[in-house]
Amino acid sequence: MRLSTSSGWTWKSWRKSRRMLGWATGVWAGWQPASWTPWPHWGGIRYEYGIFNQKIRDGWQVEEADDWLRHGNPWEKARPEYMLPVHFYGRVEHSASGAKWIDTQVVLALPYDTPVPGYMNNTVNTMRLWSARAPNDFNLRDFNVGDYIQAVLDRNLAENISRVLYPNDNFFEGKELRLKQEYFVVAATLQDIIRRFKASKFGSTDSVRTVFDSFPDQVAIQLNDTHPAMAIPELMRIFVDIEKLPWDKAWDITKRTFAYTNHTVLPEALERWPVDLVEKLLPRHLQIIYEINQRHLDHIASLFPNDVGRLRRMSLIEEGDTKRINMAHLCIVGSHAVNGVAKIHSEIVKSQVFEDFAELEPEKFQNKTNGITPRRWLLLCNPGLAELIAEKIGEDYVRDLSQLTKLHKFVDDDLFIREVAKVKQENKVKFALYLEKEYKVKINPSSMFDVHVKRIHEYKRQLMNCLHIITMYNRIRRDPAKLFVPRTVIIGGKAAPGYHMAKMIIKLINAVAQVVNNDPVVGSKLKVIFLENYRVSLAEKVIPATDLSEQISTAGTEASGTGNMKFMLNGALTIGTMDGANVEMAEEAGEENLFIFGMRVEDVTELDRKGYNAQLYYDRLPELKQAVDQIKSGFFSPDDPNLFNDVVNMLFHHDRFKVFADYEAYVKCQEKVSELYLNSKAWTKMVIRNIAAAGKFSSDRTIKEYARDIWHVEPSDLKIPPPNEPRDAGQDKTPNGTAA
């Protein structure tokens, strides 16, 4: 879950004060009680190299390092006084006094703090990121035997932990460095949390047991996917081995502290760490995980005697050629709440992915639909539309996006319709000039801007979009005089460096674009652009200019999506399947105000049951056959006719995401899109209905739901005055009356 860093929503005081931990893949908002020293409210790694810069060379993706810190970062402040040790490797010694993790290799975690201001609320929170540093005595043994050079070189082994971000977030690779990164961030952050807790008035008594009794009331840790799952055994290690709490007491506190957000149903993305790797790197944590699992399975066995299949399905340890730890199971067992990030996703999590766990503890499972911040994704990137909306309904919608429903009364206002269309056209002209400058392709700004920007992945089905482009191209070539609604198809996104098929998809799109854009018969009717290095700053340009937003994942595969929400808020219409947050967008706006097509989740399930046969669709649909044959024959790759054989072979024999099954419905739905686009007034009225229905998809609403339903905190009515204004007496008190 990716929540805005400027949510515009603050807590001055708490019914229960809470602390949240996210991992580097997501950003989490948090607040502090007025009587405490401000806490860092985001946790992550300070990567020296972020997600790679994508270059397109001869149609291929090439990755270049993103050395984003090469000129320094003026916003961050190093905090060496709070540097903390993180341990790896070693062995475990058991004695009458308990377990001891010894002979470890130490890496230091150096915190960097970045201020994160809220939106006009006189509040600045802190993002704390950790950088890995080798201790001065690292590999001192090598110094002692005279191998000075090797000892210095070995420091890199420690500091590599924060060197580079792994970009594969939809495919799990069990790399030792990745596990080191995951443990590094949770170990540092948990030490920081406990240090602050003990220094607070809540942790100042003499009785350890009394101190930690209140821990879940003051601390909330949200596990953002399974990446920070090692926080569960790490907190247990701290409580049991260091603080000497009894196991049952420690486990109760741990469960009440953690909650888990699931972000994917794709099995290849769920983390399953090899037991032997965990044993080597974190031997004490493996012992704790085994103990958690044994107690968990004993409980299951008591409820379901002799149900061996259930025990196997629910175990934290998966048997097989390689024993693995199922990190999602660890998160569920060790948390008091589990949520998906869209209504349909949360239902799939309960009914399919974690069915046994949901049957055991149905009250634990919730939904928290993702949201986006209107400050960045409307005010900042689309000021013309933001100002137009403010003129009609006032400026309060910026903090309360649900007020957009007031726009419904302007759906039939001819002046407002023209103004909305004018803003869109101005954004399109601006973006067309950008494309002409950057890509040397002249774009017709009156053409429909059909945009598909997101990570390149088979389940997001950029291939189906590509087949539609080829179909449109063939139709124009077949009858150049026939009316054709001009389109500019814009596709962008990065492929994970090791994802062969995603890279082939990028190459295919660029190869098709090369043919289409240079065919004089086609002219300005159809243009295809692949956006290089798609990123937030580029999204801020393309999203306000978009007419049609492509959200075409196979039903049941997209957890939520947030791009769909950004397009909706900026006046684009959606063509999409009933997947992820599309379902709720259709509920809010009315399904008739989106272009919905294709299989629903139950249809996909039924097709899986019967068996998907791509050949049947290929044989039955002439336009599909023609497009596939062109790819297969080398029409788009004359220098290497076999270039796309892997793509064609996948579509026929290994396509888990059933592109051919939805192709016909997709093409017919696109014909409806073109028909409506010819009627500018009707199109813009549908746009206004979508904008008016976008209020639900604010991150402010999402954060409030997490706070209310999972962290159990409520906002205060107290307002924080500007620094130059004096505080009222009541504003200097926390709810329990202590001085701020």
TrEMBL record:
EC number(s) recorded for this UniProt protein: 2.4.1.1
Region of interest (Disordered), residue spans: 714-740
Entry's Gene Ontology BP terms: glycogen catabolic process
Gene3D superfamilies, alphabetized: Glycogen Phosphorylase B (3.40.50.2000)
Cofactors, names only: pyridoxal 5'-phosphate
SUPFAM superfamilies, sorted: UDP-Glycosyltransferase/glycogen phosphorylase
Catalytic activity, as annotated: [(1->4)-alpha-D-glucosyl](n) + phosphate = [(1->4)-alpha-D-glucosyl](n-1) + alpha-D-glucose 1-phosphate
This protein's record includes keyword Phosphoprotein: yes
Gene Ontology terms: cellular component: cytoplasm
InterPro entries: Glycg_phsphrylas, Glyco_trans_35, Pyridoxal_P_attach_site
Keywords: Allosteric enzyme, Carbohydrate metabolism, Glycogen metabolism, Glycosyltransferase, Phosphoprotein, Pyridoxal phosphate, Transferase
Residues annotated with N6-(pyridoxal phosphate)lysine modification: 566
Gene Ontology molecular functions: glycogen phosphorylase activity; pyridoxal phosphate binding
Family: Belongs to the glycogen phosphorylase family.
Subunit (UniProt): Homodimer; enzymatically active. Interacts with PPP1R3B; recruits the phosphatase PP1 which dephosphorylates and inactivates PYGL/glycogen phosphorylase.
Listed NCBIfam families: P_ylase
Function per UniProt: Allosteric enzyme that catalyzes the rate-limiting step in glycogen catabolism, the phosphorolytic cleavage of glycogen to produce glucose-1-phosphate, and plays a central role in maintaining cellular and organismal glucose homeostasis.
Protein name, UniProt field: Alpha-1,4 glucan phosphorylase
Species of origin: Geospiza fortis
